[in-house]
Write a structure and sequence with these properties.
Blueprint: H1 2-5, H2 19-25, H3 27-30, E1 35-38, E2 42-45, H4 51-62, E3 65-71, E4 81-89, E5 94-102, E6 113-121, H5 125-131, H6 142-151, E7 155-159, E8 163-166, H7 170-183
Parallel strand pairs: 3-7
Antiparallel strand pairs: 1-6, 2-8, 3-6, 4-5, 5-7
The structure holds 1-O-phosphono-alpha-D-glucopyranose.
């Protein structure tokens, strides 16, 4: 049903200048409306609503950028964007983000709340992405652009309901294959 109801198109990022630059490359397709970003190497499985559907509900309430987070082991914080902020809705695991750092050193990380590859972004992010300087890894980081919005109170982080596999590494990729094989009853 999705294939029948959608138009698919693509833009190629010509140089690997970072996730922020990749998102900026998509601006001509998006224009002036909120949009979702899915990083395909973060594979998510949920029992009920998909992670993005959960996030759209939160967007409808807060009308600002929404990022999905999960707690990761302390020794892995240097692989992720790490947020800190105020828990504003305890029962729904929703935080108002006050700070975020891309791949901090383990000793410097203010929390173990890691950004995973699901974002709903408001279109003012493009203007910010155009202005920011390269950050971690000398790349244009979406985390740095989001910090600009967060300083104005415009970023909400949400501990999503579901399971995530980091398919950017062999271990997570194999775990995902095994998990879905079991789920589908493949022996
Ligand atoms: C990207 C983001 C990072 C986020 C991660 C989630 O990093 O820059 O903030 O935590 O995705 O998978 P990458 O994995 O592309 O290095």
């Amino acid at each position: 049903s999705i294939i029948d109801s959608c138009v698919f198109t693509y833009i190629r990022q010509r140089k690997m200048l970072g996730l922020g630059d990749a998102i900026l490359t998509g601006e001509p397709l998006i224009g002036n409306e909120p949009f979702a970003v899915i990083l395909a190497d973060d594979l998510c499985s949920t029992v009920g609503e998909s992670v993005l559907s959960q996030m759209i509900e939160i967007y409808n309430k807060y009308q600002c950028s929404i990022i999905a987070i999960e707690e990761v082991p302390r020794d892995q914080v240097n692989k992720y964007g790490i947020i800190s902020g105020e828990l504003i809705d305890n029962s729904n695991d929703i935080y108002r983000v006050s700070n975020m750092v891309e791949k901090p050193d383990i000793v410097d990380a203010k929390s173990n709340l890691a950004i995973i590859g699901r974002y709903i972004l408001t279109p003012d992010i493009f203007e910010i992405l155009r202005k920011i300087k390269p950050g971690n890894g000398n790349e244009i980081q979406i985390t740095d652009a989001l910090l600009d919005q967060a300083k104005k109170g415009n970023v909400i982080a949400y501990k999503f309901k579901g399971k995530r596999f980091d398919c950017g590494g062999i271990k997570g990729y194999l775990e995902a294959i095994n998990y879905f094989a079991k789920l589908l009853g493949i022996k």
